[in-house]
Design brief:
The complex is a heterodimer of chains A (about 400) and B (about 260).
Chain A: E1 2-8, E2 11-16, E3 28-37, H1 39-45, E4 56-57, E5 62-69, E6 83-86, E7 89-90, H2 96-99, H3 113-120, E8 126-127, E9 144-147, E10 155-156, H4 163-166, H5 172-181, E11 190-194, H6 198-209, E12 214-219, H7 222-230, E13 234-237, H8 244-251, E14 259-262, H9 273-283, H10 292-300, E15 306-309, H11 322-327, E16 331-334, H12 339-351, E17 363-366, H13 370-378, E18 387-390
Parallel strand pairs in A: 11-12, 11-14, 12-13, 14-15, 15-16, 17-18
Antiparallel strand pairs in A: 1-2, 1-4, 3-5, 3-9, 3-18, 5-6, 6-10, 7-8
Helix pairs in contact in A: 5-6, 5-12, 8-10
Chain B: H1 3-8, H2 22-29, H3 34-38, H4 47-53, E1 72-82, H5 86-94, E2 106-111, E3 116-122, E4 128-139, E5 143-148, E6 155-164, E7 171-181, H6 188-193, H7 198-215, H8 231-238
Classes of the chains: A alpha/beta (about 400), B alpha+beta (about 260).
The complex binds nicotinamide-adenine-dinucleotide (NAD) and zinc ion (ZN) (2 copies).
One zinc ion (ZN) binds near residues 38, 60 and 172 of chain A.
């Protein structure tokens, strides 16, 4: 089959690889019909995530048809022919964490538990196509994928919904939703969201669904800010204001937003001095992260407010205003998305026409065109918001 | 060391060697490549050799390495909470023939009668080590104590305890296994080349035990598809201290080319 492999920093390529096989009894094989490039994949592309190996198949946002199930899969939950969306977190369904609905923290799905344990004290769940520390599972930017614990994660999709309407249930829609839920929104609240990428855009929509009165969206790309506006947000182009924190206070009667959501993560852009230092450290591999958005969240948030962090970070960061965080009595909520908690309820919202997630799509390409799209998406060229791949499409380019 | 001293060492004292703090681990990681990530474990140096067998049993000798010593010993401890009733955890363990499913260094355990069993382990230099063991004490659903019989090439003493975990979270299992080689099965030099943190390996065994009982299977990516690997990737695999000794084919540096597809 064809698959997109990480071949090194800024090197993604389409490779011919063997079709995936069932390796464990609870595995299933999915014939992929749609798969996407995520902002998280850009961290791999840019080489900021440790423990990638040349040849790793990437991709974690995919859906398709079940073509094979292992002997240990509960057939009432999943059988050949089912059309499913696969969540990017892999979970066993039986451990303490799965029982607590903390699906992205499953104890039994990371074969390389020890690597993450060394780095973090304990390991989160395994993830598709996302470093060996997170399990080293082959990803879903391919024609087929092996899905472990297949009777836990994959969500069956009823007829009448197109792939494009449901494929984002694999990650960014639940992620944006959990990002908003973690904001601890009460009716009348004002929520500020950094980043108007797919995650930020879904967080904006979800914040309104959860009762926010105002959402303030922050980015620097006019076409993305435009999308945020269309979703109902007020917007700030952070490159056009002197002091973003002051702007946010000015917009909220000096109080600051009730909640601040960091939908940017480890590769935040910026131009301040601390940012330059972060950037230099990251280039020298002294640090993985540029936490300037998180810093701004702490400074801007109203006293006693909540910070939600769906943006991904890799490791240690410097110069976090911890005293400010403490004295302002803030709360921080974060984590990889607990996918299985949200997929079904959000599917229902789609069925009830309360939201059509396909609004984020800007590019539809074949696998052969996908490596090039990494660059387009990374550099936010061509008004790129979200790239969806049809792994069976013929390449348009001659 | 006498059997007496070995017995004394079975209390559940923490045997973990001092681990560097997390920032030092990060320091190792910051070199950027995956290799570096693997470099953050254990006390470095002999890791590649350790991988050659990577097993608890093969890892003794490293604790006391005075040249005069003609015997060597290792002691591994670990504890883990498994989300199953005590009876289930106990009975799975009590059938020793199940142990090789999650203890990577064991090739087989044949149970001959209620108390006796024959153990075969992967030793250094592709040598197999065999011994007989007997259960010397047991309390149903609480404790099993077993030990190699007098005169074996290897002295082994194992104790495992099962208690209710706090907060109804299942069963807390504590295990301690000591090995002692009276010079015969392993030469001291060979043993010295091998792994060095038996408790680390034991922790991996216990993780597999937990996955097996909770999820019904041990998570794996062995045998999955991938694109062309580099030589570096071969090293990545070869340096994995949790390398399953059973499946060392295809994982070593020498075999890196076999793992390529194009
Ligand atoms: N928690 C999870 O489970 C999860 C899941 C998916 C994605 N993510 C993470 O969410 C983040 C966003 O993902 P995405 O797909 O939307 O990516 P994206 O790259 O499309 O969007 C990021 C946006 O942030 C903006 N940005 C950069 N610096 C900024 C700054 N200083 N202030 C304000 N905005 C800034 C960029 O201009 C861009 O529009 C990533 O870190 C990704 O890894 C997390
Ligand atoms: Zn994603
Ligand atoms: Zn689990």
């Amino acid at each position: 089959m064809k698959a997109i492999c990480w071949m090194g920093k800024e090197k993604m390529s389409v490779e011919d690889v063997p079709d995936p096989k069932i390796l464990n009894p609870r595995d299933a094989i999915i014939r992929i019909t749609r798969t996407c490039i995520c902002g998280s994949d850009l961290h791999l592309y840019n080489g900021f995530m440790p423990t990638m190996e040349q040849g790793d198949i990437v991709g974690h946002e995919f859906m398709g048809e079940v073509v094979e199930v292992g002997s240990g899969v509960n057939r009432e939950k999943l059988k050949v022919g089912d059309r499913v969306v696969v969540p990017f977190t892999i979970a066993c369904g039986n451990c303490f964490f799965c029982n607590e609905q903390l699906w992205s923290l499953c104890d039994n799905s990371n074969p390389n538990y020890w690597i993450a344990e060394e780095m973090m004290g304990n390991s989160p769940s395994g993830l598709f196509g996302y470093t060996h520390m997170m399990g080293g599972y082959a990803g879903g930017q391919a024609q087929y994928a092996r899905v472990p614990f297949a009777d836990v994660g994959p969500l069956k999709i009823p007829e009448g919904l197109s792939d494009e309407q449901v494929v984002f249930l694999s990650d960014i829609f639940p992620t944006g939703y959990m990002g908003a839920e973690n904001c601890n929104i009460r009716p009348g609240d004002t929520v500020a969201i950094w980043g108007c990428g797919p995650v930020g855009l879904f967080a904006i929509k979800s914040a309104f669904l959860l009762g926010a009165e105002r959402v303030i969206a922050i980015d620097r790309f006019p076409y993305r800010l435009q999308r945020a506006k269309e979703a109902g947000a007020e917007t700030i182009n952070y490159e056009q204001v002197d002091d973003l924190v002051q702007s946010l206070k000015d917009m909220t009667g000096s109080m600051g937003p009730d909640s601040c959501c960091d939908a940017v993560g480890m590769e935040a852009a910026g131009h301040t001095l601390p940012f330059m230092i972060d950037r230099a450290k990251q280039v020298m591999r002294l640090s993985f992260d540029r936490p300037n958005v998180f810093r701004q969240c702490i400074m801007a948030c109203r006293k006693g407010g909540t910070i939600s962090m769906p943006g991904v970070y890799g490791g240690l960061v410097d110069k976090i205003p911890l005293g400010q965080f403490m004295n302002k009595g803030l709360t921080l909520k974060t984590g990889q998305t607990h996918m299985m908690r949200y997929m079904k309820p959000l599917l229902e919202l789609i069925e009830q026409h309360k939201i059509d997630p396909s609004f984020v799509i800007s590019h539809r390409v074949s696998l052969d065109e996908a490596p090039e799209m990494y660059k387009t998406f990374r550099d936010k060229q061509d008004e790129c918001t979200k790239v969806v791949i049809d792994p069976w499409a013929e390449s348009k380019a001659a | 060391m006498t059997r007496g001293s070995l017995t004394r060492s079975t209390s559940f004292s923490s045997q973990d060697n001092h681990e560097s703090d997390s920032s030092a681990k990060f320091g190792a990681l910051l070199a950027g490549l995956g290799i570096a990530a693997l470099g953050l474990t254990r006390k470095s140096a002999t890791r590649v050799a350790m991988v050659a067998t990577g097993a608890t049993i093969a890892s003794f000798a490293l604790r006391d390495d005075s040249a005069e010593q003609s015997q060597s010993s290792s002691c591994a401890t670990s504890s883990i909470i498994v989300n199953v009733p005590r009876e289930r955890a106990y009975s799975f363990w009590r059938d020793f023939s199940n142990l090789p499913q999650f203890m990577n260094h064991l090739k087989s355990v044949e149970v001959s009668d209620g108390r006796h069993s024959r153990w075969v382990a992967y030793g250094p230099m592709n040598k197999e080590i065999e011994w007989d063991a007997e259960i010397t004490d047991e309390q149903e659903n609480e404790r099993i104590l077993w030990q190699s019989i007098e005169g074996s090439d290897i002295s082994m003493l194992g104790i495992v305890e099962f208690t209710e975990a706090a907060g109804k979270r299942g069963t807390l299992i504590k295990v301690n296994i000591s090995y002692e080689s009276p010079g015969g099965a392993l030469s001291n030099t060979a043993a010295k080349l091998l792994g060095k943190d038996p408790s680390f390996l034991m922790r991996q065994d216990m993780r597999r035990f937990k996955a097996l009982l909770e999820a019904g299977e041990i998570p794996t990516t062995e045998g999955q598809s991938h694109g062309p690997r580099s030589l570096l990737s071969g090293l990545f695999g070869a340096m994995n201290p949790d390398e399953p000794v059973k499946k060392n084919a295809g994982r070593s540096l020498a075999n890196a080319h076999k793992r390529r597809v194009s």
